[in-house]
Amino acid sequence: MTENIAASAVVASGAEIAEHVLIAHYCVIEKKASLGDSAKLGVGCVLAGGSQIGPGCVLGNYVTVGEGARLEQGVTVGDHTVIAPGTVIGRNSFLGSNSTIGRLPKAAATSTVKNQPGMKPLRLGPDCIIGCSTVLYAGTVLGEGVFVGDRALIREKCLIGNKVVVGSGSVVENDTTIGQYTKIQTASYITAYMDIAERVFIAPMVTTTNDNYMGRTEKRFQRIKGATIGKGARIGGGSILLPGIEVAEESFIAAGALVTKDTERAKIHIGFPARPVREVPSDELLEE
Ligand SMILES: CC(C)(COP(=O)(O)OP(=O)(O)OC[C@H]1O[C@@H](n2cnc3c(N)ncnc32)[C@H](O)[C@@H]1OP(=O)(O)O)[C@@H](O)C(=O)NCCC(=O)NCCS
């Protein structure tokens, strides 16, 4: 036996422990949990029943891995992070400290979004980097190489494409789709039911909205819709998109603009309300 298990750790008899593992003091490993070759657990980690920690994973201190969750090979997890039951973390991903990964949504009594039973666990593709104090919800899928900054939040039933960046402190609400290589910068608010295509750029502190009735009347439930943003569009700092707006491909929204109408393809829109003023220079357009 070449594993190194601290005397105070509690390892259930049905747990599967591979070779060369390191299990620090006060860890609890429940039955049917498994730990791959050379995996390392810091002090006080809890691996619930049936959870799988792949070879070479490194968990900091006081990490909790829920029932049946799976960490593929080479995943690193910071101190005090909680991974919800059934969550899948792709190989070589990094999760910062104090994060909550794969939590179930819990609606307020007055919320328009009700509790939804049977939500699928969160899935992260390989090579994702998730910051510290981030919150990712169940029912969401992150592709390969996604970056989520510190204190960002991504709600349930979102589809986040490969290599997307969600900047620090940004919020992505439920049922939103984000295409590959899109970048959302610091502290932007992406409302529920948005469709954002690939290679979109969203500058810091952008606000998007989805309800023109601001919580009143029943008809709002039929009309609720965030903006649709076409491929390669760029949304300037501090701008506001009203509900259901279609931002055309390669549109440029100037900093501080209020977008009240659908925009024109590859045109620069400036002002409050925003108006198209000229073409986007050709050397700024995406190459086909
Ligand atoms: C559109 C933009 C590029 C400026 O365009 P520009 O044509 O070079 O602007 P100019 O400096 O020539 O200004 C032309 C006029 O428009 C005004 N103007 C410029 N930007 C404006 C804006 N965002 N909103 C309202 N008016 C604006 C100027 O005051 C000027 O008015 P004037 O002729 O009465 O003096 C710039 O406003 C912008 O939005 N940049 C994006 C910044 C950003 O959000 N980056 C994100 C990453 S940090």
Automatic annotation (TrEMBL):
Keywords: Repeat, Transferase. SUPFAM superfamilies: Trimeric LpxA-like enzymes. GO terms for molecular function: transferase activity. The keyword Transferase applies. Gene3D superfamilies: Hexapeptide repeat proteins. InterPro entries: Hexapep (IPR001451), Hexapep_transf_CS (IPR018357), Trans_hexapeptide_repeat (IPR050179), Trimer_LpxA-like_sf (IPR011004). This is Transferase hexapeptide repeat containing protein.
